[in-house]
Design brief:
By secondary structure, the protein is an alpha/beta fold. It has one domain (11-258): NAD(P)-binding Rossmann-like Domain (Rossmann fold, 3-Layer(aba) Sandwich). 44% of the residues lie in helices and 15% in strands. It has helices spanning 20-31, 43-54, 69-80, 106-126, 128-134, 160-180, 201-204, 207-215, 225-235, 254-258, and strands at residues 11-15, 35-40, 59-63, 88-91, 141-146, 185-192, 247-250. The protein has a seven-stranded parallel sheet, with helices on both faces. Helix 6 links the parallel strand 5 and strand 6 (185-192). The longest helix has 21 residues, at 106-126. The termini are far apart.
Length: 259
């Protein structure tokens, strides 16, 4: 029981690890003894976070575009040249697109689906051999898909491809959770509510809008780094070894209050 929530000594990959929720999880992992690879398209932001996090542990930055299988293959080849196994894969990289239904463009649909849904599927497929090598019956390797409460309830915004992609990701988590368990790989998801990030910056910067959002949260605040990092650490520790194919909502009670 003493080490029930420990993740020390593991090796993790976190996509979209240079900002927002990905960076929150990456920082916690590094501080808790996880060798952490972070990926992002933007090299400058990635290197900045690598330097920041490396003062507390092992953090390696790899610039990558995961919108297609070529980028996924390149990431696998680079990490595969360093690692023979991987304990944790966090599929966090995501994007959004907002437009009226009448004007919603095909490129807005395809871009979001490629990053939010296709990428987690093919990344997990590609890294399956390294995840299988790590997984043990009493301590499986882990895949965590970062979904959203917008995949569960109406987002009240014209983000049709985003909410659809996150809903599909939640179901994909159930599907993969059942299928990957035989390899000692637990696949779960987290559906965050309102956390400080690029996607919610327009809310945080608008005092009136921020106030309206917080009114809808039973726990009257936005999420903190500890909230999302603690959930991710639980899902990667011995404590959650029998949790498989589930989506944990971390939203301060918004979904529960929505009915």
């Amino acid at each position: 029981m003493k080490n029930l929530f420990s993740i020390e000594g593991k090796t993790a990959i976190i996509t979209g690890g240079s900002s927002g929720i990905g960076a929150m999880i990456a920082e916690a992992f590094v501080q808790n003894g996880v060798k952490t690879y972070i990926t992002s398209r933007k090299a400058d932001a990635l290197e900045e976070k690598r330097k920041e996090f490396s003062s507390n542990g092992k953090c390696i930055a790899i610039q990558s575009d995961l919108s297609d299988t070529n980028g996924i293959n390149r990431l696998f080849e680079e990490i595969g040249s360093y690692e023979s196994k991987i304990d944790i894969l966090i599929n966090n990289a995501g994007t959004a697109w907002a437009s009226s239904f009448e004007d919603f463009p095909e490129k807005g649909w395809d871009k979001v689906m490629d990053i939010n849904l296709k990428s987690p599927f093919f990344l997990t497929q590609k890294f399956l051999p390294l995840l299988k090598k790590s997984g043990k019956e009493d301590n499986p390797s882990r895949v965590i898909n970062i979904a959203s409460i917008n995949g569960i309830t109406h987002p009240l915004m014209p983000t049709y491809s985003y909410s659809s992609s996150k809903s599909a990701l939640i179901h994909l988590t159930r599907h993969l959770g059942a299928d990957m368990a035989r390899y000692n790989i637990n696949v779960n998801a987290i559906a965050p509510g309102f956390f400080p990030s690029k996607m919610t910056s327009h809310i945080a910067k608008n005092e009136a809008l921020s106030s309206e959002v917080i009114k809808k949260i039973p726990i009257k605040r936005m999420g903190s780094p500890e909230d999302i990092a603690g959930t991710a650490m639980y899902l990667c520790s011995r404590a959650s070894s029998w949790v498989c194919g589930q989506t944990i909502v971390v939203d301060g009670g918004m979904i529960a209050a929505s009915g």
